[in-house]
Amino acid sequence: MQAITPTTPARMTHDYVRDGTTSLFAALDLGSGSMIAQHYRRHRHQAFLRCLKLIDTAVPKDLALHPVLDNYATHKTEQSINGCFATRRFHLDFNPISASWLNLVEPWFTELTNHKLRPSALHSFIELKRDVRGWVNEWITDPKSFLWTKTADEILNIRAEYCQRIIDSRH
Asked: What is the average pLDDT across 77-95?
């Protein structure tokens, strides 16, 4: 299936069947590129809290943790917020709405999509989980850090041009 953009309609084959999904929570260490990632059957606050506990256990206790989060409702439940602040170790940083590009774990998800999921012909939920887990394990053995290659002004100009194209496409 192709991503939907303002000027491109969605396309899929007549026999496309969605056999299941998995929620993948991932934490990226910006300096080293190391990754902690875990599958959960559903994208709920309980899974988010389990993932945070996994991170809390894996990262040395003397380090403060600053997860950069999107504005998904799971991250903002009372249970999630209270669970994070109960340890006083987590400092939640939320992206502005529609600014996921500020979160450097997003390029990792793009790598996963473009190099593993899109070229794959998966036939079951079990295959999906196995392939994603394999990709994560490969990444863990050879981590790569992500860096922005454009200045803030370049990024903002690209965004402004994109917004203008959207406005122009309505006329």
From this structure: 76
Q: How many domains does the chain have?
A: 1
DSSP-assigned letters across all residues of 7-76: TB-----TT-------EEEEEE-TTT--EEEEEESS-SHHHHHHHHHHHHHHS-TTS-B--EE---GGGG
CB contact burial 35-65 (16+ within 10 A = b; e otherwise): bbbbeeeeebbebbbebbeebeeebeeeeee
CATH of the domain at 140: 3.30.420.10
What is the pLDDT, as a whole number, of residue 161?
A: 92
Residue 1 pLDDT: 47
**How much is the pLDDT for 62?**
92
